[in-house]
Amino acid sequence: MTARVHKLINQPENLVDEMLAGFCAAYSDIARLVDKRLVMRAQPKAPGKVGLVIGCGSGHEPAMTGWIGEGLFDVNIAGEIFAAPGPELMVKGIRAADRGGGVLICVSHHAGDLLNAELALELCQAEGIDNVDMVVLYDDISSAPKGREPERRGTAGLFFVWKMLGAFCEGDGDLAAAKALAEKARDNTRSLAMSLSSCASPVTGEVMFEMAPDEMEIGMGLHGEVGMGRQKALGADETIDLMLPPLLEDLPFQAGDEVLVLLNNSGSLTLMELFVLYRRAAAKLAEADIKVYKSWIGAYATTQEMAGFALSLCRVDEQMKALWDAPANGAYMKQL
Amino acid sequence: MNAIGSEELGALIRAMAQRVAAERDALNRLDAALGDGDHGTSISRAFAAAVEDIEALQEPSLSAIWLTTAKALMNRMGGASGAIFGAFFIKGVASLRDVDRVSNHLMAGALAAGLGSVKARGRAAVGDKTMVDALAPAVAAFEAADDFSAAWAAAATAARKGAESTRDLVARQGRAKFLGERAIGQQDPGATTVALMFEAANDWWKENQA
């Protein structure tokens, strides 16, 4: 029988609304609710700029509400737990983000996110909202082999795309240029995740899948999707030594490259563990003569209380570095 | 009876809503093995919204009922399932437009159009371990029948058999595809929902129309 987990929530059917209301109450200077499922930045960007929206399932906090703000997204269209929002709500979000310079819908590649974005785009065309486009983003090397990158899932490493694209859309570039930049950041980003534990669905309270205490899975998706298979749990250094080589080979990242590094906490790993993991990753990158431009360690895209992490790398050039360093003010992504 | 009006069509949707609600926990358990474990909760929530929205219609024509159901599934369920169940109903709307009563042949056309849209949207075919495995044989059985009684009965049987066939399959679409061989032995929840919908329609028909 599957185990149940007690979560500190009220009625599950009110969970998403209550969470968004709490988020916007806490960060009212950064984000506000324009509909009970639309979170918009408190100060809209200047007229004529490209608007950025993302529709996605809830349950991955602080993604994506934490990424609403100056230098980041304009509107987050929040779906149910782990389920992308429907097309009518997405069109509302697109309208809210429209500052006259067009709107780019970012899709973190999963079947539901893609299907609903496609439907929303069709509705926009039918309703005469022109100058809307979408970009499909992916980074998880475990979800499809090299050569079939467009089949891969979008996971934690899109962090890099969000930040650079957000900065880009504060500038004067148009919709087509914004989409091209998003694709460039995506095509230079790779991620691989692992997990030591399952987590419980807040909707049902049931543990989503079973894992033995001495097991780990490499390639775990953002919703507990299975990856490359189970194996005996290893120590920190051995885990990095297992995950880093396939990540480096995939792009490939080579000697002389400059990279951004993210160690994303899936939920309940400790910072202590993440620092130990990072220490090994940094040493191995140095050995491969790959230079770390900046690194981030924290919980940016979570899967409830799952104990695991994703290691993400993004190869950067001067344009991308400048976009990375540009200011951002989201509740959970700040760049001074 | 060989043609149905909007009152009967609304009642059929209500019967489907009641059936998926009654099977909510069982659908959640099926989904737990292959997905997030909340398919029963989300499909019953969306069907309940469809029933409410149909009751609120000023002019409940056949096409309005079908469109309202499509929109509720698409917008209240979300995710891939919402888009695909919504696609099934929305593509049938054109077949039902401007008619007061629908024959089993016309209804078969609406269902077949819906099936085509589900396959296109979901990029799925029979054998991919998706709702298509129940829907395709159900629609074929419905089309081959001579009247509504025979059509609902044959479709319900075919849909159930199709749903059960998904147990032996490896998924090629949807998030269960990442499970690979691990999906074998598990029945697809979307296909099961399709079976429940046709069974509910058939039971309602037997009680009220046959």
Mean pLDDT of chain B, to the nearest integer, reads 94
Distance between the termini of chain B: 7 Å
CATH superfamily of chain B: DhaL domain
Structural class of chain B: mainly alpha
Radius of gyration of chain A: 19 Å
* Percent helix of chain B: over 70%
Q: What is the overall number of helices of chain B?
A: 9
- Count up the helices of chain A: 8
How many domains of chain A? The number is 2
Structural write-up:
The complex is a heterodimer of chains A (336) and B (210). Helix content of chain A is 31%, strand content 25%. With 336 residues, chain A is of the alpha/beta class. Chain A folds into 2 domains: 12-188, Rossmann fold (3-Layer(aba) Sandwich), CATH 3.40.50.10440; 189-325, Dihydroxyacetone kinase, domain 2 (Hypothetical Protein Tm841, Chain: A,domain 3, 2-Layer Sandwich), CATH 3.30.1180. Chain B has 9 helices and 2 strands; from the N terminus they run βαααααβαααα. Chain B has a single domain (3-205), classed as DhaL domain (Serine Threonine Protein Phosphatase 5, Tetratricopeptide repeat), CATH 1.25.40.340. Helices cover 71% and strands 2% of the residues of chain B. Chain B is mainly alpha-helical and 210 residues long. The interface between A and B is medium-sized, with 34 and 30 residues.
